[in-house]
Design brief:
The protein has about 425 residues and is mainly α. Helices cover about 75% and strands about 0% of the residues. It contains 19 helices and no strands. Helix 2 (about 20-60) crosses helix 14 (about 280-290) and helix 15 packs across helix 17 (about 340-350). Mean pLDDT is about 80; it is low at about 105-110 and about 400-413.
Length: about 425
Amino acid sequence: MVLGLGVGYLIHVLAIDHATATTIAGYLSIVTEIFLRLIKMIIAPLIFTTLVSGIAGIGGQGTVSRLAGRAVAWFLVASLISLALGVVLANLLQPGAGMGLVAKGGSISTGLKTASLNLHEFLTHVFPTSIFDALARNEALQIVVFALFFGAGLSIYHKDPRVAQLRNSLDGIVMVMLKVTEFVMKFAPIGVFTALATAVAVNGLDVVFTYGKLVGSFYLGLVLLWMVIIFAGYLVLGKDVFRLLKMMRQPALIAFSTASSEAAYPLMTERLEQFGIRKEVVGFTLPFGYSFNLDGSMMYCTFAALFIAQAFGVELSVTQQITMLFVLLISSKGAAGVPRASVVVVAAVAPMFGLPTEGVLLILGIDQILDMGRTVTNVIGNSIATAALARLEGGDVPMTTDLVPGLATTQRD
């Protein structure tokens, strides 16, 4: 990571012009793209097999319903806390105050597909027309929906020897996919290096200082959010939450450097099982969290919206800000599968509160830097949520802190 920052900065400084730096960065990005493609290659089969295996092995339908209900409750509370904390900090720190920008008006395009962010599109998009199409496009939410139906059918006929054979085959595929994940993760250090080198080579470090107040305020907010999330995990997991965080260092680093939650997903699955959580619970809970428990993205939405309001001198009353909080809560749940979802949510919600479109273009310039922070926060939030929900189910997470990371044994009822 440090080497990537250094090499990227040298390229940015020594390059003859911006075009040359961009060309060199383009060659470096080839390695990053290959690494991310390898990750995406294993995402769909990993989600499908772990979730189906999880539903089939987690217990009766009552157990599945109870775990799903607890997961939804946890995700909603976490989202509300993230959004509310973002509102409070943005008002206290005023990252956009004093910029004195004036909206030019007129029609300005951000290039973001905000039209796809509505209730109709979201609800219809959730349900796949073809599981093969969903697998081919890595549509996580559609894969989850099909896996729920498939897993439920598998559990009903679990006594049939033919179905038992199919379930054993799926369990075997899960084992193979985890080994494939291990192979792919050997390329992670190279992917991290080229990802950071590419970003710094093109943008340099100047952009961080230009938007220093926004970046600093947002990352301060993320640190406070981490403290809240860790405290919530401590209430359920006790001191084991720190062991979990230690085991999640590498997935978090991958998420931060690549700004991709997908890149961290396979390794998260492996580490959560090593932590002592049954693979059935991991396979059931983690895919849901990836769609609905995006704590860092929630905070980003309120921060970005209020930054735009402050930069352009748009006064928002307390009532308007509370209304915005709930609008963002609902809108963000419909952003699964939308490219650059967090920015799209802000772009879609901004006109509702009289915020100029130019403001979205303003934050797009440093979105990569902010995206790195919100992505690693999503990883931390989902790992703690999965472990906490497993503990609440009882008997899934070892209470002892003597286990060595990587050698933790899975307890079963």
